[in-house]
Design brief:
Length: about 500
């Protein structure tokens, strides 16, 4: 769910007549759609542009084999709305069936944002109109999640330029792609707990699959990652200077594929092409989620109760009051106390359950969760206080503390009995992302050490040999050396012979 939104005058009634006029038209479309659903797959013919849709909020183009999508609402930070989602769905389905379209590239107009989310202020306004308005909001989420699932299972290489603010709905348009390019302008966040919502757009799937408990940390705190740090954490697969993006688009357009060539082969070619435009990693931007901070994140955010996470953070501040970790823990406690208690508890449950959901489950369950948040007071309170009022105010949450949020109340967001599953645009699904183009993970480093031990190659269990092996396996990808070094320093120790042992396996 997006954080950035159209900032409306507090006198929301100015647009009430406009919203009311649209409700009847869209509700008729929604009702017709639901009535005609007879299979588990949503009929693409039901996705139609509406008369009120802006014809220019998305620009489509082509450059030889490349097909481009440019979000064109720069004065709204390219915030995603229903009009844009409908256009993108229809064009993606058209290109999927075209032999001339080889690669899809999505980006945003302007210098500030790829896509800062969606118009949550309008959603809150619609919800205030009662059941009819809430039905409009639910229809938007259904449309958005169908688009996100289409991207996540797309049959052609899909490249997302995360150049600028990439939050909420913008994350849904990019993070499930095989190729996610961060630049020096990237500002990534899933900021929903700060507005009384939960990390949607497939956050149930991608956040729990980040290393350790980084995903839980980002989900609960809504903290931002800028530039190369989105690359280091695995959110982005590549880091490229923004000045190189036009040249990359032109180069990708030159790629040609045979009909019989697999998606895996095509993606390998696209990956090699993108790597041609990687010029370096900024060494003046340290890896933020690393070392002792990363260790503290895993220690604190591994717990399954928000109260226990807060207690663990308190323990960090008591033990390391004047240290970097102690300062981080104190700031994190302060941040969590500013978030919606209901959002925190729902989001933590979501992070734990999402590890077991496949990609389709994630969107279908998130639709149920989003629908229930439409009547949740904290959502209206958070959006109104932080995004509508000028100057912004501190939201008044109800209940005001996590201890007051009962488990039974949280349960209702995850109950699926009697609920019709959201029908998606395709049957494809998976439990782990099928394409891995990002930096190596802890598991990759651990496996390299284990392979050396199993093969009896003790000489390969040095920092230099392990780093060189993984770097070679990744084709010399820039950033690999820095990432592997951080993992080895944090997770391994050396014996008297200078051989690496994984910390979990010290007895060996």
């Amino acid at each position: 769910m997006p954080l950035r939104a159209k900032i409306l005058n507090p006198a929301l009634q100015r647009q009430a007549m406009k919203v009311a006029a649209l409700i009847k038209c869209i509700l008729m479309t929604v009702s017709l759609t639901e009535a005609q659903m007879s299979t588990n797959q949503f009929d693409i013919n039901e996705v139609k542009e509406l008369p009120a849709d802006d014809p220019n909020d998305v620009l489509f183009g082509s450059h030889f084999g490349a097909r481009t999508i440019e979000l064109n609402r720069p004065n709204k930070l390219n915030a995603l709305n229903g009009s844009m989602a409908r256009k993108i769905i229809l064009r993606l389905k058209e290109w999927e069936n075209s032999e001339l379209a080889s690669v899809i590239i999505i980006g945003g107009m302007g210098r500030k944002a790829f896509c800062a989310g969606g118009d949550v202020a309008t959603i809150v306004q619609q919800n205030a109109a009662g059941p009819d308005g809430q039905a409009i909001s639910k229809a938007y989420f259904a449309l958005e999640y169908r688009l996100d699932q289409l991207i996540a299972t797309y049959s052609k290489p899909y490249v997302a330029y995360m150049d600028g603010i990439t939050m909420g709905g913008g994350v849904g348009l990019s993070v499930h792609a095989a190729f996610r390019i961060a630049t020096e302008n990237t500002v990534f966040a899933m900021p929903e707990t700060s507005i009384g919502f939960f990390p949607d757009v497939g956050g149930s799937f991608f956040l729990p699959r980040l290393e350790g408990y980084i995903g839980t940390y980002l989900a609960l705190t809504s903290n931002q990652l800028n530039g190369v740090n989105a690359f280091y954490t695995g959110i982005a697969t590549h880091y490229i200077d923004s000045s190189s993006l036009p040249g990359l688009t032109a180069r990708l357009g030159e790629l040609e594929f045979k009909d019989y060539q697999s998606l895996q082969f095509r993606e390998s070619v696209v990956n090699a092409t993108i790597e041609e435009f990687v010029t370096g990693i900024p060494h003046d931007e340290p890896m933020l989620i690393a070392g002792e901070i990363r260790q503290a994140i895993d220690r604190c955010f591994r717990h399954d109760r928000v109260e226990d996470i807060l207690a663990a953070l308190e323990g960090e501040t008591a033990r390391k009051r004047k240290s970097r970790v102690g300062e981080w823990a104190a700031k994190t406690i302060e941040t969590l106390h500013e978030r919606s208690p209901i959002s925190l508890k729902v989001t933590l449950r979501q992070m734990r359950l999402g590890k077991r959901w496949d990609i389709s489950d994630a969107f279908q369950r998130e639709y149920i969760m989003a629908s229930r948040f439409m009547t949740q007071p904290d959502f209206a309170a958070g959006v109104s206080a932080r995004l509508i009022k000028k100057p912004p105010e501190k939201p008044i949450w109800n209940p005001s503390t996590v201890s007051e949020v009962e488990g039974g109340y949280v349960d209702q967001f995850f109950l699926v009995a009697g609920e019709e599953r959201l029908k998606l645009l395709g049957p494809d699904t998976y439990r782990d992302y099928p394409t891995q183009m990002a930096l190596p993970t802890e598991s990759d480093v651990k496996r390299a050490i284990a392979d050396a031990i199993q093969a009896g190659r003790n000489g390969d269990r040095t920092v230099g040999r392990i780093t060189s092996k993984i770097l070679k396996d990744r084709g010399g990808k820039l950033g690999v050396t820095e990432k592997v070094k951080e993992v080895l320093e944090r997770k391994c120790r050396l014996n008297d012979e200078g051989l690496l042992f994984w910390q979990d396996d010290i007895s060996s």
